[in-house]
Amino acid sequence: MPTAVRAALVGALIYLFLVGVxxxxxxxxxxxxxxxxxxxxxxSNPIAGLCIGVLGTVLVQSSSASTSVIVGLxxxxxxxxxxxxxxxxxxxxxxxxxxxLVSLGxxxxxxxxxxxxxxxxxxxxxxxxxxxxxxxxxxxxxxxSNAAGWLSESLVGASGSEWKSPFKxxxxxxxxxxxxxxxxxxxxxxxxxxxxxxTGLVLIIVSLGLITKNMRxxxxxxxxxxxxxxxxxxxxxxxxxxxxxxxxLVQSSSITTSILIPMSAAGVLSIRNAYPVxxxxxxxxxxxxxxxALASSSPDALTVALVHTLFNLSGIVILYVxxxxxxxxxxxxxxLARLAATRPVWAVAYVMGAFIMLPLVGFxxxx
Amino acid sequence: MVLSFFRKSPRGLxxxxxxxxxxxxxARHSFDLATLAFxxxxxxxxxxxxIRATDERMNRTEIELRSELVVHISVQGxxxxxxxxxxxxxxxxxxxxxxxxxxxLDLAEAGAGLANQPxxxxxxxxxxxxxALFGEVADLMVExxxxxxxxxxxxxxxxxxxxxxxxxxxxxxxxPGRAVVPRAIYYxxxxxxxxxxxxIVRAASxxxxxxxxxxxxxxxx
Lengths: 367, 221
Fold this sequence. Notes:
- Chain A is mostly helical.
- Helices cover 85% and strands 0% of the residues of chain A.
């Protein structure tokens, strides 16, 4: 496919993605207040919210998709910012499962697996440490949501008000068509809302998947060249910026972090070189939620998207900038990788436990 | 460096091929110097540092290229696996030529050189012919041409057959060992260098040969 056509296709897919977010928001609104309260009463506990964020992201294998849905829920008023923040943090943890699964591909070759698994799990440890530090601080002080609220207010207006998003206007017509079409087949009330939400979810997941696929093809040569530069002479900050730019363009941190795994397995990329790329990917992936917030007229949606960005930036400031703590996630990842390399069953147990069992138990206990 | 992300530049594999061509240029440089020291009065000590530095550069390039090829597969997927395999094979062969040039230098440094021999002119002409082959191989690496490859392959087969005949002749010669052994060893290296040059073009065009080449044994490589 010619580059120009592919670029135009990506533009159309971004539009489709915004239609999906708006359809989801509209569907939630159509459901009515009672249904919303029944649906989301279980996630009022922050730990339950965190666990739902992890599980939801593991399920769709994309934090971009799950955070966009969370933004849509906030925009519709189904959940508030306080409920959404732990879910966003959970999504950050959940997204790391993809590159960990990729690393399991080399489980039969001990040395390769040790390197690959360490590079994959350094992302996990960073995100878990960041949540362990920032979630309690956020719950006690609201520092992230307050800062994001202030930024959001400066940009589009105060919480509770409505701002005239041009993107919202652009997607209004197709969302109206979706609603009319589903009403025409006899749906109304909660049923109409559920189908609109499902349509929105499908549009979000499909369009994000296709955006990622096409953008990856569009920028693959540039990514390759940049990775070679990082390997030969890149500093941590350059690697981080590169991880961020690549992820912003492909709209998927999993793509960026998964690229690193075979390189680490082959021994051409050390965990110390891969780590900052991963952190950049963490920041870059927040662009999708910001984009989703543009499809809404609620300043709260933008606030939640900004919390996602601020959370990842704060994590870097706390866990990467000070040299004395920088090695902590690397140390833990290498320790776990050594263990997993001796008996790969530990790696499987880790994936199942950390990304499925623990969040399920956490949700069960905390809801 | 981040801004360079947005600049247009050659595709990954094109870049790797151009670096491999540069590596072949280094191998030719080593070959020219080593054979010059072996066949003429040029002091082996004078070219030693240059050849060893070139060899180190080639080894470094080989490692960097392998790393670039791993990055290529990681980023682009397995679509180019054939070309990547071919490149890995050919950089290995180029690196071997560098080693074989070094072996010729070792022969010269051991005092077994063939300067001022009755057939010096023929030996130097043959050296020039093989040196020119490096240029042709470089051209074929960048732009494969079946016709040119076939012609090159035939010439190389003739050269190898002639080298082999000479080696056999020296093995059965009545002349003293001092006269024939350096020549036999020299022709053995030339034979391997020519085989590796053909192998480079073959690896670039058909990385997974369906019929194994019988002319190159494991021990020879």
